[in-house]
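re: ur question from yesterday

yeah so i grabbed the chain u mentioned. its 57 aa long if i counted rite. heres the sequnce exactly as i have it in my notes:
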Amino acid sequence: METQADELMKKIEELQVGHARLKQQVSKLLPSDGGGGHGGGDRRSDIRQQRSQSVSP
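ran it thru and got these structure tokens back, copy pasting raw so excuse formatting
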């Protein structure tokens, strides 16, 4: 019989594996611009700047 700690460790390992798979899938979907990491925030700010420039009189 497994203890609660063993069950939790097993669930944590399963979540870590699932997280790694999701990261791989997301990295395949996102266009790479030469740099790894978190480029999503930069692209959003670029879009906001483009929108604000296009609305300016």
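noticed a couple things. The CA atoms of residues 1 and 25 lie 36 Å apart. also Residues 4-29 form the longest helix (26 residues).
anyway ttyl
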